[in-house]
Amino acid sequence: MEAAINAFAASVPLTQIDSSLVLSKALSLYEGIVASGGNRYNGSVIGLWEFKTGSGTVAYDTSGVEPALNLNLSAT
């Protein structure tokens, strides 16, 4: 499978991004990718599940909004 994916990826031609198609001059492509690395806007969050416990069947709501919306996970 990995060989098939690599073969497909190698067949896709690389193209340069036409700078005239970038409408915003606020960030370059590189700066936009770096800025989006894991940062989220959390101003209107009503539920947040981070799955940090690593085990168990409950995903705890860590948003701080009450009542908490904990998720009970099942295999069905």
Would you kindly provide a written description of the structure presented here, covering whatever features stand out?
The chain has 76 residues and is mainly alpha-helical. It has 2 helices and 2 strands. The protein has a two-stranded antiparallel ribbon. The model has no long low-confidence stretch (mean pLDDT 80).
Separation, N- and C-terminal Cα atoms: 29 Å
- The sequence of SSEs as H and E is HHEE
Q: Largest sheet at a glance?
A: 2 strands, antiparallel
Strand content: 5-15%
Based on secondary structure, the structural category is mainly alpha
Outline of the structure:
The chain is mainly alpha-helical and 76 residues long. The protein has two helices and two strands, in the order H-H-E-E.
Please give a handful of descriptors for the protein shown.
76 residues; two-stranded antiparallel ribbon
